[in-house]
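thought: fold this chain, then report.
action: predict
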Amino acid sequence: MRTENGLGGEDHGVALRIAMWAGVARERILDALARTPDLDIASADSTEGFIAALDGAQVAVLPGLPRFYGPDVAAKIASSSDIAWVHLISAGYDGVSAAGWPPGVRFTHPGGALSGAVAEHAFALLTALSRRLDQAVLGQVRQAWGKPYAQQTSTLSGATLAVVGFGSIGQRVAKLARGYDMTVIGVSRSGRPVEGYEVHAAGDLLDVLPRADAVICALPYDDETRHLLDAQAFAC
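observation:
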């Protein structure tokens, strides 16, 4: 095998060692990697096991969430002279932001691969809130279905949705909202125009919120976004 781009130089006949820790779809990922020749896969299911698997690895594959990418893992990667590439298999990278980005290590992520699933989950929660599905389930268990429940439900059709964070996930949320005949207002750092949508810069957030019946956040969790929706925002 010939490896380039800082992952072992141009060695021949040397397997690329990958340390992997997957919280979901583990077997599917391992099966896909097993079909690729000249890979040495060290799989782990705990912090201690993953740190051990990192010895001699050139690539680390794990979610970028605090449960996985914590201070101990970050320190191990930072001290390694072999690890050149970390691939995050989650949409979030909260743990990396908190624990630190080791210098000289390339980080990649799934891009828009998870946008559909995340957007659908967010919209499922919005629909459940609108239709008070938690109360509906309790009513079914209790065999009670009355006016109080019906009076608390609402419809999404005709409502206005503010999507804070108008990247790949945010725009997938917006498409789902359009299917419900909702008006969508996007908010992004730059306020860059997106065809077919009204988009505002982050500095206009407090002007957008009073117009919204519901808000969905599709933001990375970091120092810049922490407490973005504060008491002032909820008072709008």
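thought: worth noting. The first helix runs from residue 26 to 34.
final: tokens above.
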